Amino acid sequence: MLSMIKDLIMMTPEQVRAFILEQACRFEVVEGADFVLLINNDAKKDLCLVSHYDTVGNTPPKVLKQESNILHTDGTSILGGDDRAGVYACLKLADSVRYTLFCDKEEIGGLGAIEFCESMPHFTTKAFIELDRKGNNDSVYYDSISLDFEEWVGSFGWKPNTGSFSDISKLTPYFNIPSVNLSVGYYNAHSKREILDLDVLETNICRVKRMIDEYDNRPFALD
Known about the structure:
Layout: H1 2-9, H2 13-23, E1 28-32, E2 35-39, E3 48-52, E4 64-67, E5 70-73, H3 81-93, E6 99-103, H4 111-119, E7 128-133, E8 138-140, H5 147-154, E9 159-161, H6 168-175, E10 179-183, E11 186-187, E12 195-197, H7 198-214
Parallel strand pairs: 3-6, 3-7, 7-10, 8-9
Antiparallel strand pairs: 1-2, 2-6, 4-5, 5-12, 8-10, 11-12
Helix pairs in contact: 1-3, 3-7, 4-6
């Protein structure tokens, strides 16, 4: 675990994209200028995981430190756990779902998500699960279109919270597909005080894996 997440944090967005493609040899790949979609034709679970591989400023930290289960910088730069933690989680879970979407330029308006919508207007899946939320137990619904879906997510212990924006803010209104953004263990995003709790990240990867494993592929009723 430590090697991959540390490597991802120390990469530029271009390097992260190249790394994703290196890991994707077992999947069908659809590329746009600002997105990469992995299609796992062997997966039975019709869900789409989402994360973004850009960071605020797009500059890797100069110094990466670890104290116990916490990653942080030396205080001179942001960490980039938002959303390299999500990229890491999506790579770990990609074998379990039909689709995994990695977007660029989320931090400047979700341009990768917009391009995905325009490039694949007929894309369909049962739900988007984005892994791009601070903290340890949040579920955020920017567009609440399915109480059925929200109750299903809540049954795994996630607690609803509010948020301002993520890629699914573009995806759900366009496709009319329910979505949620879940915590991946970073705190103080967009600041030089940002940290990433590795225990939370690993625990929540396991939680999402349980959600996937227990999902019965039923469509979620829309409100």
